[in-house]
Amino acid sequence: MAQHSRETTDPGRSPATLPEPAATGFPAAHRLLSLDIVLALLALAGGLRVLYLAAPAPALPAEAANVAHAYALGHLTPFTDAGGAGVSPFGWWQLTAYTMVSDAFGRSASALAAVRETMLVAAVLGAVLLWFLARRLGLTRWAAAAAVLLVAASPLALGLQRLVVVEHLAVGWLLGALVLITRPGARIRHDAAAAVCLLAAVLTSPLALLFLPAAGWLLVRRAPARAALVAVLLNLGLGIAFGPAAAVLRPHLAAASRPSVADWVALDPSWAVLSTVALVAALAVTALRPLAVSGLLLVAALLVPGVPDTAVLALLLPVTPLLFAAVVQALARQRVPVHRGNRARGPGTVLAAGVLVAVVATGWIYGYPALRPATGRAGPLVEAQDWLRANASGARVLVDDGAWAEFAKAGWPTGLLVPAAACAAGCPAADWAVFATGADGLRSRYPALGTALADAGVTAVFGQVTVSRLGLPAADPAAPSEESARTHAGAALAASARITCTPDALAVLRAGRADPRLIATIAALAALQPVGVAAFPAVPGEDPAGQPRRRVLLTGGADGAAAFYAGQRDLFRPSSVARTAGGVLVTYPLFAPPGLLVPFSSP
């Protein structure tokens, strides 16, 4: 009978209220059903988030700084971000705590994936808390499941909750506080714990302050005296955190940047429609009005210049599905007559449910392909780090926030990493520069950085990541073009009767894309023996940067070719000569000296 009282209501009940939670526990069968529903929803939420964890877009610039701070705190390494990412010491400590306890940095292919794992765990815990909150607000099992499902499977939620945004951590604290506040028969210890959760949420993100009206409203409804106790504890904690301990605890919001609300809504337009309906309609439901007010305050925050849209949506994301499911339940109970033991569902209710499912499904059919899960977990920054380790290990590198975390995680000495923020007055000396999203914004913020990059030459490109060599000499405008010299010499080499080339190798030679040291040495080897050129294999990242191919795979006369290249000296000494199943692979180091190519006749 206790469960029947939760699942049914009087036909004359006003839609402005939801049934109060039952005072007694669920029967065993109902408990098992609820557990099965929750576990299925968690499996769905967790599985989808694992699949989309490394999705490349939408991207958030501030995410890199949060990852770097989490790594730096866990490894007791100083780090100063380039600005614009906000400040959340308590949020960074939470990220650090998880990555250290779980050894996420040791297990993950990249620093970004390691900290994003924390977001995955936070999303799954948030789904559990959302279920409990829905049930304590009077939602049926299926209404609560619908609310969690809308968050678990929405493309907008998948794209947003994978990003390293401290507001996702604040959501967990807020939901925990609301679950404690709505607990039937709550005691003083539960209210004290709720106050601690609210304080933790605000210290994680200042936007959590917009949920205090909802928490206070719910507390006053249940026990006004307890509300005063929670207010005293919360104000005491905030006074300390924003007063004497402000230097180490006070959070600041990140600067407004893309993705914008429009970018996120494009992933799931149905979410925007349902959220608007839910926030307005929930004002008419007494039990939901506190959450509706806080939700509307968050929407209003989107209109404030400088407030980051992504942070606001992260806090709003679990609220509107809960409100929508509760509003639908209240309307259904008002319009549908109730009989003993069952509820008669009219054709109008079934039609409305079908339309709702169709709207949500249509939005998701568009949103999932737009999100595009990534197949690789390492990412371009890890590829750039591997390339630089192979070609300039131990060099001093000027990096942005994202590159700092990846290089430090890979074992690059942090003393050899120069963050962009170090260029506030003047850039320390560096040999290379690695930037993940371009340096235009950083140049305007740090003029000294522009001076350091003035003589840089792009050497490798991995997606959006550029690797540049600093301190290159200025090109002599009167000197002959190196590319034209390679083209002329390559065409002559391709025409040689003693050199047999595959079509791909011929294309490289005739386009002037072969390293001059390879052109010169292949011509010299051809004077000694016939030469077969199978390919000029590209070094990953160098072709997009316009670097000449500096590797060649030679076939035929393997012993003579290997001995010839092993005996080279000075400028023509290769960095490696390796025998492979396809032939002899010769690799030269970066940057051939200028002027190596002189006119020669083909042998």
Strand order of the largest sheet: 4-3-5-7-6
Helical percent range? 40-55%
In DSSP terms (H or I, runs of 4 or more residues), the helix count works out at: 27
In the predicted model, the low-confidence regions spanning at least 5 consecutive residues are: 1-15, 20-25, 338-344, 599-603
The largest pleated sheet is described as:
5 strands, mixed
Question: Care to count the β-strands?
Answer: 12
**CA-atom Rg in angstroms:** 31 Å
Main structural class: alpha/beta
Describe this structure in words.
This protein is an alpha/beta fold and 603 residues long. The protein is built from 27 helices and 12 strands. It has helices at 2-7, 28-51, 61-74, 89-102, 104-107, 111-136, 141-153, 155-161, 166-181, 188-204, 212-222, 224-241, 246-249, 261-265, 269-281, 289-301, 309-316, 319-335, 347-371, 380-392, 401-409, 440-445, 447-452, 482-494, 503-510, 516-526, 558-566; strands at 338-339, 342-343, 397-399, 417-419, 432-435, 457-462, 465-469, 499-501, 531-535, 551-555, 576-580, 583-587. Strands 4-3-5-7-6 form a 5-stranded mixed sheet, with helices on one face. It has a 5-stranded mixed sheet with strand order 8-9-10-12-11. The protein starts with a helix and ends in a 16-residue tail after the last strand. Mean pLDDT is 86; it is low at 1-15, 20-25, 338-344 and 599-603.
